[in-house]
Amino acid sequence: MLEQTRLTLAHSEATVVDAASRIFAAYQASNRVDDSNEDEMVERSIKLAIKMAKRVDSLVKAEGEMS
To answer: How far apart are the C-alpha atoms of 4 and 44, rounded to whole Å?
Structure first.
């Protein structure tokens, strides 16, 4: 039986997980993921999602954000 894990993610963390999962799915769909590199590709997906989020944050000012 699998051990249950409970997570409480902040909105920004959940957004990065969402983006990273889409990036990872694209890697899988293009046959770039296998058992030998799965952890590496998860890490790569997360890093790319964070990089994208930081870039968007630097280019786009959200409502209520100081300039």
So the answer is: 25
Neighbours of 23 (CB within 10 A): 19
Contact in structure between 24 and 41 (CB atoms under 8 Å): yes
Measured distance CA(27)–CA(52) in Å, rounded: 16
Residues 31-46: tens digit of each pLDDT: 999 999 999 999 999 9
How far is C-alpha 49 from the geometric centre of its chain's CA atoms? 4
Residue 13's closest CA among 40, 46, 42? Answer: 46
- Give the predicted TM-score (pTM) of the model: 0.86
